[in-house]
Design brief:
By secondary structure, this protein is mainly alpha-helical. The protein has one domain (about 1-60). About 75% of the residues lie in helices and about 0% in strands. The longest helix is centred in the N-terminal third of the chain and has 42 residues, at about 1-45. Keywords: Coiled coil. This is Septum formation initiator.
């Protein structure tokens, strides 16, 4: 009987630790979801789209001239 109670206590401790781990994982995933939702919301903004186009795609506006400094390459 004492052994059974000890084993059950050990299993309860292990299950509680598992629950803590899962709760932490869920909280991390929820933070990721919130961050992605914020990114999605701003991704429809024209200023954000222009910023990404300039930074990542090296695009320029129709009335702009691209100047490349070959001295630093």
């Amino acid at each position: 009987m004492a052994i059974t109670l000890y084993q059950q206590k050990q299993e309860m401790n292990w299950l509680e630790q598992q629950e803590i781990n899962y709760v932490q994982q869920i909280e991390g995933i929820q933070r990721d979801i919130e961050s992605l939702q914020q990114q999605l919301e701003i991704s429809n903004d024209d200023e954000y789209i222009e910023k990404i186009a300039r930074q990542q795609l090296k695009m320029i506006g129709t009335d702009e001239i691209l100047i490349i400094d070959i001295g630093q390459q």
